[in-house]
Amino acid sequence: MTTSRIPTTRATAAPARRAARGAGAGAFASRRGLMLGPSVQSALEALWANRLRSLLTILGVIVGVAAVIAVVTLTQGTSAVLNARVAGLGTNVLTITPGATTTGGARGGAGTRQSLTQADADALTAVPHVANVSPLLSANTQILAGAQNWNTRAQGVYPGFQAIGNWQMAEGTWFSQADEDNAQPVAVLGQTVVDNLFTPTGTDPLGQSILMNGQTYQVVGVLQSKGATGFGNQDDVAYIPFATARARLTNATFVSQIQVQVDATDNVDATQQAVTALLEQRHQIAAGGSDDFTVRSPTQFVQTAQQSAQTLAILLIGIAAISLIVGGIGIMNIMLVSVTERTREIGIRMAIGARRGDIRNQFLIEALTLSAGGGAAGILIGLGGGLALTHAFQLPFVLSVVAIALAVGVSMLVGIVFGFYPAVRASQLDPIVALRTE
Amino acid sequence: MRTDDAPAGAAERASDPDARDAVSSQRDVPDARERLSDHESEGAHAVISVRRLAKVYRMGQTSIPALRGVNVEVARGEFVAIMGPSGSGKSTFMNLLGCLDRPTSGEYWLNGREVSRLSADAIADLRNRHIGFVFQGFNLLARATALANVALPLLYAGMPREERERRARRALRIVGLGNRLEHHPQQLSGGQQQRVAIARALVNSPSLLLADEPTGNLDTRTGMDIMAILQRLNGFGLTIVLVTHEADIAAYAQRQISFRDGLVVSDQAVTQQRSATDELQELLARRSADGAGGEPVRIREEQA
Ligand SMILES: Nc1ncnc2c1ncn2[C@@H]1O[C@H](COP(=O)(O)OP(=O)(O)OP(=O)(O)O)[C@@H](O)[C@H]1O
Ligand SMILES: [Mg+2]
User: Fold this and answer.
1) Ligand 1 in contact with B111 (CB < 6 A)?
2) Looking at beta carbons, which residues of chain B come within 8 Å of A433?
3) Which of chain A's residues have a Cβ under 8 Å away from the Cβ of B299?
4) Which of A5, A98, A191, B52 sits between 20 and 30 A of B193, alpha carbons compared?
5) Please, is B215 exposed, middle or buried when counting C-beta atoms within 10 Å of its C-beta (0-12, 13-18, 19+)?
């Protein structure tokens, strides 16, 4: 009858045994701080249990982080291009465009106001240190060569523009002063135009006739490629003598812009001032009045472009910040719901020895896991979006480690900031009340 | 289904030598000797010493005196049943014993330490290392497996993972659930869930096991099964305080304390302590005589 009872020997040995068992727990008396590993695991389990809800919660963070990463990728690609363009432009070319500079350097309605004339350009040759001057007349046009056609930008320029634009010839020559003087129907084609009009038929473009605006031109030269960069392809162009453009292409009295080549980089600043002074005089602008034109050195030109890119970036990052805050509030909301739903679990954990700090950390880590997960997804999506955008704009794809680190940091911060209140609330629960909650 | 659990568990207990050995082998834990002296010094005290303990719940204007000056001493290794009508303050008393709540006045000495002077963190550690809880409603984490549930207190004790799992597995074997480690609570019967809860209460080798109506949600047969486990643990020297409404259940304890209106009205030793294990055996033997199933065979296995 008593066969399955605990043998009496065991019972008598019990106190010592129990003492030893108590000691077993005592051996691990020192607690480990955050218990990070198991906490993250249990956080993942809890989030997985409500996976749709978790996904919807982190959507705000995903969008915010993705926007930041995409924008930064785009901006970095842009400035890489702009920097390359400074080098390509030559550091000694001044660009004069119609329209005033607004404060901050952003261009206000540039090109819309008409104020520059060919006479302005010719007058600038008299300014000291000016090596070359050319007005530019631009028009979008369609070129026909045999059965091929191509839409490009035709620009009427002086022969000296070859030096200003730092163009090398692949074939033939740039048009001459005689061509300019006689308004000859000749054209120098960029590589992209040649690729589209002549390469398909295997024809040598040199000496061929092309139709532009219904009029015949002869191809006298082909330019060496400068390589495709963003904001339009520099090789997608056809240069014709200025006089020809004025006579045949547009009948505008004003020019699109004037470019001035300075003889040495050191003289750029002085020449810029001299050019400005001369034009102000010619346009009868009183001292202190606002100019109806803008003179930019290459660095200013790039700065202006970069500033507008930065303005865009700041705007988008602002939107991203709002999205992150909204995402953070979403996380806070869901964590509060989660704390309420899991009140009993909190009570159980407290009953078996969780400290308030343990409970707080548990929910904090859960919020952190949520936001970090959103951040990681956002980074991937943002990089994908950035890759697509830079590809679409023909910009180089620059991976920004700083932006990624920032995104990780910010999303974690969102988790901590917005997860803190729910976590503290969970840790402040009364164990008995929590245990009684259904 | 429920009633079949016990023999299966009992058989496993017997066939698994590790389980039989589980409790005693914990003696091999490193630096046990070092800590032993600590416990011996505690030996001078009772596990529980409660003096003039009172608890008043305040609800707005009214105040409800749930305990009105309770004096109780519980010595090491005792098995105490607390009885009394509904609302007499039994659960309130248990919550105070378990350091889940603080008394309005009076003293509570646990293992020679006055609890009300301890910080919240120290009390959490006390619950973690010295007290095991078994609730009427089991209170397991639904998302976690039996093993994870049992291992949880060790997590808060800061024990490394392998050690946690090793001990949790052993605790589950002790309650006869060595083959249900990966089951979730909803995949277990009520009796099995309560056994998981007991394993969890045991896993940190507490000096005190508190059970508030542990058989309240179980049928008589499964309740007996739980009582058999508790008696077995008490046999190993574990101090147990148990609340029950049923005189049958209280009869498995060594001592009965009765509450009424927040006071102890009687406190007496049980003259004839029943043995849940023996009664289970008899029950099963009688059933097999009636030709009911193969359970007695398992019992013989256990005897072997
Ligand atoms: N949180 C609380 N707030 C207010 N009053 C409470 C609270 N908990 C218990 N009480 C009151 O304290 C008294 C004792 O309650 P307690 O739960 O200790 O009784 P019990 O003996 O466990 O009863 P039962 O056998 O029904 O579980 C009751 O009058 C009850 O209404
Ligand atoms: Mg009760």
Assistant:
1) no
2) none
3) 4
4) A5
5) buried
Yes or no: is domain B8-47+76-105+120-290 CATH 3.20.20.70?
no
CB of B88 within 6 A of ligand 1: the answer is: yes
Number of residues written out for chain A: 438
Q: Say how far apart CA B3 and CA B287 lie, in whole Å.
A: 12
Write the residue in A19, A28, A431 that is nearest to B39 by C-beta: A19
Q: Is A52 left (phi over 0), alpha (psi -120 to 50) or beta?
A: alpha
Q: Are strands B239-243 and B79-83 parallel, antiparallel or unpaired?
A: parallel
- One-letter amino acid of A340: T
Question: Is A332 strand, coil or helix?
Answer: helix
**What integer pLDDT is reported at residue A396 of this predicted model?**
82
Alpha-carbon distance of A269 to A129, in angstroms, equals 11
* pLDDT for the residue numbered B290: 64
Rounded to whole angstroms, how far apart are CA atoms A217 and A192? 18
Task: Compute how many other C-beta atoms are within 10 angstroms of the C-beta atom of residue B1.
Answer: 7
Alpha-carbon distance of A371 to A417, in angstroms, equals 11
Under 8 Å CB-to-CB from A219, ≥6 apart: which residues?
Answer: A172, A186, A187, A188, A189, A205, A206, A207, A208, A209, A210
Q: What angle do CA A210, A215, A218 make, to 5 degrees?
A: 40
Spell out the domain ranges in chain B: 8-47+76-105+120-290
Burial, B48: exposed, middle or buried (Cβ in 10 Å; 0-12, 13-18, 19+)?
buried
What are A317's two structure tokens? 């990052």
Q: Do A24 and B32 touch (CB under 8 A)?
A: yes
Q: What is the pLDDT of residues B222-264, one digit of tens each?
A: 999 999 999 999 999 999 999 999 998 999 999 999 999 999 9
| B154-175 residue pLDDT tens | 988 888 889 999 999 999 999 9
Interface of B with A in 185-214 (CB under 8 A): 200, 204-207
| Full-model pTM | 0.69
Which portions of chain A are predicted below pLDDT 50? 1-30, 103-112, 230
Burial class (CB in 10 A: 0-12, 13-18, 19+), A20: buried
Residues, Cβ < 5 Å to ion ligand 2:
B 91
User: Parallel, antiparallel, or unpaired: how do β-strands B239-243 and B208-212 relate?
Assistant: parallel
